[in-house]
Design goal:
281 residues; alpha+beta; N-terminal domain of MutM-like DNA repair proteins; Helicase, Ruva Protein, domain 3; 4-stranded antiparallel sheet; 8 helices; Formamidopyrimidine-DNA glycosylase; Znf_FPG/IleRS; EC 4.2.99.18; hydrolase; zinc ion binding
């Protein structure tokens, strides 16, 4: 799922392209993407886009009095068109979830690859009506030291779980939690309450900030590939760690996996690749 750095790159790109333009039409390609019915999606037709912003991992297209809150699923992304395809949108065909037409002739698609359709779009007058927004914790780039320390100290979970908990720290997912923990030389299974919070916060800001800066000027079509190139451990199981030369290892779950470096993070110990979530004895 796109995380803070990628979504910030989308925000920057879209602000330069759509703010001040007007919506002419919104075509739905996947009915399940719509999570609200009042106001209806048709209410944005004719409205001027006044801004684009981000909360956590959500992209928000702003109008006067309305927000279109777009949440990408694991395989979701935005496709930009300088000239929107003229043909009709066929419901339930392909990755297209929603297509936005602009008065300038440009537009964009919210798409989701694969058969699972978990992306969502909500049109609301108050963005906090969307649970993911209303319940979001402090942003990962702006959370202060006291808030971060409290999130760790009050938790009984492992540190990777805390970093990914959007109600505690908004914006980090599976990929960048792996990257942050690798840079901090911490096991993903380390108890959050025992972690040096100030040191980890500094590392988190550095990793996310550098990732964001590397993506911010790219068009949407190039962001995902650029993100992948910048990753040190995530998605690189079996490759050599660029820091210490150890072989990057993996722990697999039913619906995702994490990657880490035994040399940098676990004292050369391999983590159990089972749901027992413990170090092998």
């Amino acid at each position: 799922m796109p995380e803070l750095p990628e979504v910030d790159a989308l925000v920057s790109f879209l602000r330069s392209k759509v703010v001040g333009d007007f919506i002419t039409r919104a075509d739905v390609g996947e009915l399940s993407i719509l999570k609200t019915a009042d106001p209806p999606l048709e209410a944005i037709s004719g409205l001027e886009i006044s801004g684009v912003s981000r909360v956590g991992k959500a992209l928000i297209v702003e109008f006067d009095g309305l927000d279109l809150v777009c949440r990408f699923a694991r395989a979701g992304w935005l496709v930009w068109h300088e000239d929107v395809p003229a043909g009709p949108v066929k419901m339930g065909k392909g990755p297209l979830g929603l297509r936005i037409h602009l008065a300038s002739g440009a537009g964009f698609d919210l798409s989701e690859a694969g058969t699972k359709k978990n992306a969502s779009v909500s049109l609301v007058s108050d963005r906090t009506e969307v649970p993911a927004i209303g319940n979001a914790g402090p942003d990962a780039l702006t959370i202060d030291e006291d808030q971060f320390a409290a999130a760790l100290a009050d938790s009984t979970s492992r540190i990777k779980t805390v970093l990914e908990d959007q109600q505690l720290i908004a914006g980090i997912g599976n990929a960048y939690s792996d990257e942050i923990l690798h840079a901090a030389k911490l096991s993903p299974f380390a108890p959050a309450s025992g972690v040096d919070a100030p040191a980890l916060l500094e590392t988190m800001r550095k990793v996310l900030g550098q990732a964001r800066d590397s993506l911010i000027d790219l068009p949407p079509a190039k962001v995902k590939a650029a993100k992948k190139r910048g990753l040190q451990v995530h998605g690189r199981a079996g490759e050599t760690c660029p820091v210490c030369g150890s072989t990057i290892a993996e722990v697999s779950y039913a619906d995702k996996s994490l990657q880490y470096c035994p040399g940098c993070q676990t004292g050369e110990k391999k983590l159990s690749d089972r749901r027992m979530d413990r170090l092998l004895k």
